[in-house]
């Protein structure tokens, strides 16, 4: 896909919810501007990805990618899953941390501040 960069999602759900999440992800892709997408993963543990090409110079496509990713993450969370299956929570998943963990984020931030008052360890990574 010349002129496009790979964009992908990364979620993990209980195995009992995997079929529903894969089906919903496919449905969401078909409703998006990204009709061509690959869905693959380490499905034995419920982790999967949706990958497609995004034009990095097209703000509408970037917005559509973020919207699609948010919908896939939200569906996974509704099914008892997590916003990330293997790549960890960091800058790319920062906006979903509170969606997944709610007020526990405030507790985590308090602990981080107690152990790292100068904010030297992974500054701005999650908090």
Radius of gyration: 16 Å
Overall spatial form: globular
Which CATH C-level class of the domain at 5-90 is it?
Alpha Beta
Helices and strands, in N-to-C order? EEHEEHHH
* CATH fold call of the domain at 5-90: Alpha-Beta Plaits
Task: Give me the secondary-structure category.
Answer: alpha+beta
Number of strands: 4
> What is the makeup of the main sheet?
4 strands, antiparallel
Helix fraction bin: 40-55%
Mind sketching the topology for me?
Blueprint: E1 5-8, E2 11-12, H1 15-31, E3 38-42, E4 47-54, H2 59-78, H3 94-101, H4 104-115
Antiparallel strand pairs: 1-4, 2-4, 3-4
Task: Give a verbal description of the structure.
The N and C termini lie far apart (36 Å). With 127 residues, this protein is of the alpha+beta class. The chain has helices spanning 15-31, 59-78, 94-101, 104-115, and strands at 5-8, 11-12, 38-42, 47-54.
Features:
single chain; 127 residues; alpha+beta; Alpha-Beta Plaits; 4-stranded antiparallel sheet; 4 helices; 45% helix; globular
Structure in a nutshell:
It contains four helices and four strands.
């Amino acid at each position: 896909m010349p002129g496009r960069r790979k964009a992908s999602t990364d979620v993990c759900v209980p195995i009992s919810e995997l079929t529903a999440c894969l089906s919903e992800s496919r449905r969401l892709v078909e409703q998006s501007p990204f009709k061509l997408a690959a869905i693959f993963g380490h499905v034995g543990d419920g982790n999967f990805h949706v990958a497609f090409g995004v034009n990095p110079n097209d703000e509408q496509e970037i917005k559509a990618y973020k919207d699609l990713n948010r919908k896939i993450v939200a569906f996974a969370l509704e099914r008892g899953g997590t916003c990330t299956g293997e790549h960890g929570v960091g800058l790319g998943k920062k906006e979903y941390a509170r969606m997944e963990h709610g007020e526990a984020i405030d507790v985590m931030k308090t602990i981080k501040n107690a152990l790292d008052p100068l904010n030297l360890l992974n500054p701005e990574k999650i908090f």
